[in-house]
Design a protein that fits this description.
single chain; mainly beta; five-stranded antiparallel sheet; four-stranded antiparallel sheet; 1 helix; C2_B9-type_dom; cytoskeleton; cilium biogenesis/degradation; cell projection; cytoplasm
Length: 175
């Protein structure tokens, strides 16, 4: 089978309203893909910068896939969270990006968003924290239902990925 090896890191995030951020991430693929080695999901540490406007995580990603076709090419999805001084976690944004289809090193900036909610939910979020979240996280990277959501743009997640392709031509898969 053809193979894809994804090696890199979630560098960090910028453009969010507060500091003390961490990120939950995962990689989603189609049915023809099989993970041979590596983790398909994870979480970074909380970064609390003292003098910077960005959070730096340098969280490693290293996963090896085998596939029979291009359908369902890997996508990386993110949930960026803020942790306040009391240890409470608040969702700051969802985002996803496709893993590049060309071999080599790639710098990716993934924009994030969060559901805006009703006026009542926005007032409650301002005074009490929390806020609306997706019931089904698959909406982050899938189809038409995502476009019906009312959202607010948040910051960006910065990713550096190296993509290695193997045996694609041998198995008749053209990139």
């Amino acid at each position: 089978m053809a193979e894809v090896h994804i090696v890199g890191q979630i560098v960090g995030a910028s453009g969010f309203p507060d500091h003390s951020l961490f990120c939950k991430w995962g990689i989603n693929t189609g049915g023809a893909w099989k993970a041979l080695a590596g983790l398909r999901e994870g979480q970074t540490q909380v970064d609390t910068p003292q003098q910077h406007d960005a959070a730096y995580w340098a969280h490693p990603i290293d996963i090896h896939y085998a596939t029979k076709g291009l359908q369902g090419w890997p996508k990386i999805h993110f949930q960026v969270w803020h942790q306040d001084s009391f240890g409470r976690n608040e969702l700051y944004g969802y985002g996803f990006c496709h893993v590049p289809t060309t071999p080599g090193m790639h710098e990716i900036e993934c924009p994030t968003w969060r559901p805006s909610g009703s006026f009542k939910e926005q007032v409650s979020q301002y005074f009490l924290g929390g806020g609306p979240q997706l019931k089904n996280p698959d909406l982050i990277y899938s189809g038409a239902d995502r476009y019906r959501l009312h959202t607010i743009a948040m910051g960006s997640v910065h990713v550096r990925l190296g993509v290695i392709l193997r045996n694609f031509d041998k198995y008749g898969i053209e990139c």
